[in-house]
Amino acid sequence: MGMGMSRNAWETVAGVGLGLLGALLGLVLLTAWWHFQTGDSMAFFLKDVFWNGGLYQDSIVSVSVLADVILFYALLRMKRERLARGVMVVVLAAVPVVIWLQAVNLEGA
Prior knowledge:
The protein is mainly α. The protein has helices at 7-38, 42-51, 57-77, 81-107. The protein has one domain (9-107). 83% of the residues lie in helices and 0% in strands.
């Protein structure tokens, strides 16, 4: 028996990577939507609204992770439970990040 992770463990790790890509895709889609609605550049949204504009950071992270919820559902329908588990890890990890962003941004208010 080799020393290393099992196939199931690797699938879960791959699911975490897929979940991170899904959240990034969600951020890109949200940025594109903002661009088309306001006419502001995507760089403006990322730099001034997301990175420096503390008021909306938690909401932006929450909406970005919604892409992972869709991905999670699709993986379950395809019977890829191990990959779905990794995606769910990313969704669950986003919860304390959102709470932390809310707490940090309330301190400055």
